[in-house]
Amino acid sequence: MHIITMLALLSILVLVHELGHFGVARALGFKVSRFGFGLPFGPTLYEKKFGDLTLCIHALLLGGYVSFPDDDPDSEIPKDSPDRFANKPVWKRLCVVVAGVTANVIIAYFIVLLVAVGSGKLPSGNYIVSVKDLQQGKQYSAYAAGLKAGDIIASANGSKIETPSQFTNIIQRSKKFDGYVESAKINDYEKQLIAKNPSLNGLNEKTSIPSGIKIILPESTPEKLIVFKGDKITAMYGYKPSGYKLNNNQLKLRDSLEEKNELTADGKVSLFDIASARSDNAHPVDITVLRDGKEVALLPAYPNKEGLLGIRLISDEIKIPSKSFGQSVKLSWNYLSSNTEFMLKGLCMLFTNKIPLSEMHGIVAITKIGGDMIQHKGIWDGLLLTALISMDLAIVNLLPIPALDGGHIVFLLIEKLRGRPLNETIQENIAKVSFAILITLMVLIIFNDIIALFMNKL
Length: 458
Known about the structure:
Elements: H1 2-27, E1 34-50, E2 53-67, H2 90-119, E3 121-134, H3 142-145, E4 152-156, E5 159-160, H4 164-173, E6 180-181, H5 183-196, E7 214-216, H6 232-237, E8 244-245, H7 248-256, E9 262-264, H8 271-279, E10 287-291, E11 294-297, E12 311-321, H9 325-351, H10 363-377, H11 379-397, H12 405-418, H13 424-454
Antiparallel strand pairs: 1-2, 3-12, 4-5, 4-10, 6-8, 7-9, 10-11
Helix pairs in contact: 1-2, 1-10, 1-11, 2-9, 2-11, 2-12, 5-8, 7-8, 9-11, 10-11
């Protein structure tokens, strides 16, 4: 039932988008041939003609379109007729194209405002992150660090903790055996190796050590603390490990030497190999907690190879009360603008490959997450998610891809600058290629959704 509710909300967003195109087109005197709700594939549930407009409702509701005489190759309207979309002034066509995303932005704001007025509060985007309990086992460092159930995580490595993902990301990035080591640490370990094994003195660091030589291994010590800079999304996705990246042989050597304090050379490893392998270790995590109303700085915690400390977290989002309509108007604007900025940064990181394509999700994931949110948190949270999806639709539709509104805007701007449109064949070829790429991307996203469902990641 909750999934059906979410699908209905998503369908409304699509309908609003197409009504934006349709309303502005009719207001500016465009002849609209068809208005379709749903994708024009499979059965048509309803079709009726109202004057010169045909209204259609298709079975696949998650889609829509507004069709002009230009879209019908069998149209009887002459090519030079003012009733054709292509013969209208560029500014009018631009208004029609932009109207869809404008409608999505407007409905997004009014949904947030409805939640602010109806519930009397809006999420701040920040959370109180607490320790629910600790797991047993010597492989976890939570006990040694001094963490206790009920502690509120105030900061980690100097970063104020405002979301659970922010904290878990710091822990994951600091895990043991991340495969990167700072050059200074490798150089320092080489000196310790030579001090413990004088026979290695004078040997080139990259030359293989003769077979049979026994080498005493100095203790492997933690690496340096990782400090995250920037906003929340940069901290989550913008971090790149620094230092020397271990090769496959060094990684295998590292694993084989984990619990050892000496090595018999096999003629295949060098001083540099040993130093690199032994220098790869966990990064300390300096955690400050709030305990009984006081800040307590704990001993350094060291995540294991899986990036775990041995704690379970709980989080409560901080809500901002809206005590008047005027305050609701302001809070709604702040909420939508801050989340839009977050989405834009995420999109930029996706295109710069800082966020992997495997992190992209689509309609299947959105419906599942939205349905779960409505079920467990209520309709207000479901509506807020719908508002953010509406903004996301607006952003994505503005991308300069010919199959999207942004692509049409680019073509119109080129036409305005050139004084004439691009060759029709060129436009069609570009549109076909772009559409093929878009379909491929959609298939990839649906595949990501299905994998995430089966892996219980949604």
